Structures are given as structure tokens and as C-alpha cells.
């Protein structure tokens, strides 16, 4: 009997493609002139949140490049200051992760990856958990936040997993 199950990276790639498309629809609606707006003093500014979302996917790519990453040695790009810059960064990170996924096999996702800050290990987890928890779940969490921000700014919220008050579900 042959195994007809998709590989982990194929299944992950398909899920990422879907989730990134949904996320991009939200990011497209963030107006550059509202980047400094925040709904509460304890909340992130909308531009900071959008930038964070654009960068999140990069952590999966980082995890596929070696057994650990030291954030003190990573040159993180400057924060975007416009919606177009956020979208460019998001698109590049999305393309890069799909290319990185093509270069690995299922065993890679069972191996652990550590995020360090110098000598301090921030965490260690299997790459499959990096994909699910650090990237996808984290991105979906922030997508929920950004949806609320858009509503509070009276910007139409796109349909995500069904319709919104502003838009019918995508078919």
C-alpha cells in the first residue's frame, strides 16, 4: 500500500498559502496615516502590529536555516512606515518561506530549533511547533487584533473564515 498522505511541508505550505492570503487582505486595509493610532495605551500601535505580522512568517524560515538562531546576530530590517512597505515585507517573507519549505523534508520538522539572545536560550521547540505556535497561531491571534483595530477605525473588515459585517464570505 502506498502512502498518499501529503508531506508535512506540502500540507504546511498549503495552509500557509491560505492563511497568508487572508492576512494580506487585512494588512492591505491598514492606512499609512493611522500607523501611530492605538486603541488603548497598553495596546500596540496599528503600524507596529502590522509590521509585526509582516515579520512573523520569517521565524519559520529562520528555524529552517539551522538548529538555533541568536537574535543578537540577526539584522532585523527597519520597521515599515507605510502600508506598501508592510505589504512588500509580508510578500517577500511569504515567498521566502515557501522557497525554504521546498528545501526540507518531514524529518526537519521533528528536529528542535532554539531561539537565543546571546547565552540565554529563550525557547527550544520542534520546528513543527514553530510553524504552528510561533508562526500560524501567533499570526492568527494578531489578525484578530487587527480586525478589531480596523473596526474601531471604521474601516471595513474583510471576510476571513466566513463573512464579516462588511463583506460576504469569499468563495
From TrEMBL:
<feature type="binding site">
    <location>
        <position position="52"/>
    </location>
    <ligand>
        <name>a divalent metal cation</name>
    </ligand>
</feature>
<dbReference type="GO" id="GO:0046872">
    <property type="term" value="F:metal ion binding"/>
</dbReference>
<comment type="similarity">
    <text>Belongs to the DinB family.</text>
</comment>
<feature type="binding site">
    <location>
        <position position="142"/>
    </location>
    <ligand>
        <name>a divalent metal cation</name>
    </ligand>
</feature>
<dbReference type="InterPro" id="IPR034660">
    <property type="entry name" value="DinB/YfiT-like"/>
</dbReference>
<feature type="binding site">
    <location>
        <position position="138"/>
    </location>
    <ligand>
        <name>a divalent metal cation</name>
    </ligand>
</feature>
<protein>
    <submittedName>
        <fullName>Uncharacterized damage-inducible protein DinB (Forms a four-helix bundle)</fullName>
    </submittedName>
</protein>
<dbReference type="InterPro" id="IPR007837">
    <property type="entry name" value="DinB"/>
</dbReference>
<keyword id="KW-0479">Metal-binding</keyword>
<dbReference type="Pfam" id="PF05163">
    <property type="entry name" value="DinB"/>
</dbReference>
Amino acid at each position: 500500500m502506498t502512502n498518499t498522505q501529503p508531506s508535512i511541508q506540502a500540507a504546511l505550505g498549503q495552509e500557509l498559502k491560505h492563511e497568508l492570503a487572508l492576512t494580506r487582505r487585512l494588512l492591505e486595509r491598514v492606512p499609512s496615516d493611522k500607523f501611530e493610532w492605538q486603541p488603548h495605551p497598553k495596546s500596540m500601535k496599528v503600524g507596529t502590529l502590522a509590521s509585526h505580522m509582516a515579520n512573523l512568517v520569517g521565524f519559520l524560515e529562520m528555524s529552517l536555516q539551522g538548529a538555533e538562531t541568536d537574535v543578537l546576530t540577526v539584522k532585523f530590517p527597519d520597521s515599515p512606515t507605510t502600508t506598501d512597505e508592510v505589504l512588500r515585507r509580508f510578500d517577500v517573507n511569504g515567498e521566502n518561506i515557501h522557497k525554504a519549505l521546498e528545501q526540507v523534508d518531514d524529518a526537519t520538522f521533528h528536529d528542535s530549533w532554539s531561539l537565543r539572545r546571546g547565552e540565554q536560550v529563550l525557547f527550544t521547540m520542534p520546528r513543527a511547533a514553530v510553524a504552528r505556535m510561533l508562526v500560524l497561531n501567533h499570526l492568527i491571534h494578531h489578525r484578530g487584533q487587527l480586525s478589531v483595530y480596523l473596526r474601531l477605525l471604521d474601516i471595513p473588515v474583510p471576510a476571513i473564515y466566513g463573512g464579516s459585517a462588511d463583506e460576504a464570505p469569499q468563495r
